[in-house]
Amino acid sequence: MNVSSRVLIKEFTIIRDELSLDNSRIDVSNSNYVTISDCIITDSNIGIYATGSNNLLILNNTFTHNQKCIYASVECGNMYIIGNTFSLYENNSYGIYLQANGKYYIHNNTIKSHTNFSHFSCGIYIDGTSSIKSNIVTNCHIGLWLTDGVHNIEYNLFKNNKQIGIYAYFSSTNINNNNIEQNGNNFITYQNNLKPGGIIIYASKNEYCSIGYNKISNNRGYGIYLNGIYNSDNKIINNDFLKNSRQAFYINSRCYWQHNYWEKEKHFPKIILGFIQINSFLIIPTFQIDYNPSDTFHFT
Q: Domain with 30 in it: what CATH number?
């Protein structure tokens, strides 16, 4: 189904469009002000394909048994993905796969994978600038995968994702007021040799991270792992670290740690261990300090 500008598609059930040459159920190419709402889209390679479009609203749809439920491959403008439900069953499946640069607003969606451990799935993948708010992402291999851009991530639940809850690669991230729990696989590497855990960030001095007021608990790996984060704006404040295999660790990173709760009541500064890696042979152990850790939960 090819879609023109200023079109509303509502309350359709779309299954196995055998006439679609690229196996896309809905194709929104170079179109503006399109709304797709209250549809059931199932059993396809690509559920909704968007390219070169602006002001696309995808609202209250149900996606199931698709390889890529929503896919953007060429630069888009504003895209709003709100209130949808995604069920992932296929190997190498994605709920939301936004490979093209754009401005994305992803709010109030529920994404759950039903794949087994050997079949990769990703809840949300974004290359661009995004607002990610009030989503529930569970049982994927990677809940949220970010590359490039600036991302605001707040009030989400990332739970029981098999490898990583939130993974950011050379992105600037604001991660606030999220519940990040039971992610990881006890240091079994699976996808791209990535570290397992709740929040895993690789970056450079050009990016920053701000991580605050999150509950980071029971992750089977790192609560937070930082690699290459060396911007003076980095801060990790007012988080609750609870029963993670390893609460926090860093390599070649510099952060301001303040008033985090570290599972036990603390009356003295908390030391966070890490190291500086000069090359493959020279590694220097270092530490950073949360000088004023919290002695109570921020969350109940």
A: 2.160.20
